[in-house]
Amino acid sequence: MTVLESFSLNGKVAVVTGASRGIGRALAQALGEAGAAVAVTARTLEPAQRAADELRAAGITALPVGLEVTDPAQVDLMVRRVTDELGPIDVLVNNAGISIGSPALETPDEVWREVLATNLDGVWYCSKAVGAQMVERGGGAIVNVGSMSGMIVNRPRWQPPYLASKAAVHQLTKALAAEWAPHGVRVNAIAPGYILTEASPVDRPEYREWCVEPAAMKRYGLPEELGGAVVFLASGASSFMTGAVMVIDGGYTLF
């Protein structure tokens, strides 16, 4: 096998949560371009269907699935549906997440619970449901979407629940990697910096001082710039990697 062949996902089945737009949509595209059949999930079916239609137009096998990641019963149904329609799941990308910014003393408890439920509990439920299948089969790759916010405190917008959730995702990645390595299941994460999406309009002038200028590369990233790293972590090209958190932030955390 050549180096380039080791990146191939031909014949693999991948699930990407929160894949109807932004980072998740770009990651689904990247995995599909590498050869995987991709299950595209979103909280409601309609946006998942639109994303799947776009992927199919690009020649990618795509299955839309409505999924609320905070509901274990829906997660179990998703796993069964994907397995029935595409085959056993080889790759799981836990991307679904939310960010609600406010100072700690102004953050209602229900916001704390909502952010942690989506960003952490969702990763837990999906990893357990898909991981059980992977452990039984003796192989698989899980890629969690963490954040550089799990390592630093972002400014100027305070967001304690988001920071706590992403730090927890990084540590959960390491815990599952250690536990499941003997079963052939690799668990890694990426930690993106500021990425331009619908939910993160970092191209606006007011974001430049805090989101662009501090980065070594003096710019924000684009969702598609994360695709190569996720294909790497999902494929045999990273066969000796598990428990790693790959920072992709344009050098923001160097200073």
UniProtKB/TrEMBL annotation:
Which key words tag this protein in UniProt? Membrane, Oxidoreductase, Transmembrane, Transmembrane helix
One Pfam match, given by its short name, reads adh_short_C2
Which residue windows are transmembrane per the record? 226-248
Membrane listed as a keyword:
yes
Where the record annotates domain Ketoreductase, the positions are: 12-193
| InterPro entries associated with the record | KR_dom, NAD(P)-bd_dom_sf, SDR_fam
Q: Is Coiled coil found in the keyword set?
A: no
Domain of life, per UniProt, equals Bacteria
Q: Which family does it belong to?
A: Belongs to the short-chain dehydrogenases/reductases (SDR) family.
The family database entries (NCBIfam families) matched by this protein are listed as: PRK07231.1 (NF005559)
Q: What is this protein called?
A: Glucose 1-dehydrogenase
